[in-house]
Design brief:
The chain has 77 residues and is mainly α. Helices cover 45% and strands 5% of the residues. Helix 1 packs across helix 3.
């Protein structure tokens, strides 16, 4: 079952870490890195397997984060 998460509990932006890109809390893994791996064909379980700091829930949070950002960009001001 896919559950939406409160993104602020999983993703943060810190000055001086990965040039201020959104990263998973407690890591230097950027959201866009996970999205790139998904786009390249990796599954959430493969990504979580390669990065022990992340769970499949983190991968889903990256997708949710991207969807929310896209929605904001697509919505006229």
């Amino acid at each position: 079952m896919l559950l939406f998460v409160e993104l602020t509990t999983m993703i943060e932006t810190r000055a001086g870490v990965r040039s201020g890109k959104p990263c998973f809390i407690g890591t230097r893994i950027a959201v866009y890195d996970v999205l790139d791996y998904l786009a390249a064909g990796m599954t959430p379980s493969e990504i979580a397997g390669d990065f022990p700091e992340l769970s499949e829930q983190h991968v889903l949070a990256a997708v949710e984060f991207a969807a929310l950002r896209e929605r904001r960009l697509a919505t006229p001001a």
